[in-house]
Amino acid sequence: MTVNEIKMIREIINELNSVIDFYTMEPIIGRIKGYYGEKFSIELKAFVHNTQESYDERYLNYDKEAIKSFLNSVMSNDSRYEEVNRILDLIEEGEKCKNPWPIKYFIEKVYTAYSDKIKFDDNIKKILAPTRIKMYTTDANENMLQGVIIKLYQYANELMSHQSKPLNNGQTINVNNYIKNDISIDISVDNAIKIAEDAGLADWQYNELLNKLNEIKGIGLSNETKGKKWNKLKEIMKWVAEQGVQAASIIVPVICDAISK
To answer: What is the extent of the structural domain holding 131?
Structure first.
């Protein structure tokens, strides 16, 4: 499982709350089937009652609970899920911060929780220094916020990519080797494009984001070493740092997926 898959599952579960009929349920089922294929083998009422007229509220509610149970079971099978889920909750909280003081309090919260696991820049430590001046002013800004969010994404990706399981001969393999890499990065990019389409970006912003996503995809699918991939992706990260939190929330999970291949 990847961070992007957990993010997708969270989004689908949230979208289920606004599903009201067959027409709004059908695209969600299609999205899940497109990702999980034969693994998504539960019998839904929508497969039988596949018209707006025959798909009544009873069937709708049954399918909602069945889908939620399936997705929750997928996540609960991974021991790293709960920690990554908490990180994604934090990221969502950070993305809502707009003004210096809320940003400062958010950064302090993340630093307190993860300073023993994430290496934070000196400027982050500086704004959290307990001086008398800091009681009345703050130097926290959106660039710092974005940097902290990126570090949270990176740490979440490290948690998932380092998980391994034993073989019969005592050797270990990375669980991510089980994932079909080409399909995984394709889905990661497709999900990011969908989020970008719904983000209300200006045309020039959307097109620039699309170009970067295609560039990341090309790097992720290349046969280069992780070191060479990361050198190229670092240049894109510099671009992300100039775009704001919204762009970072779309692009960084794809970068994490690309570097894990």
So the answer is: 78-175
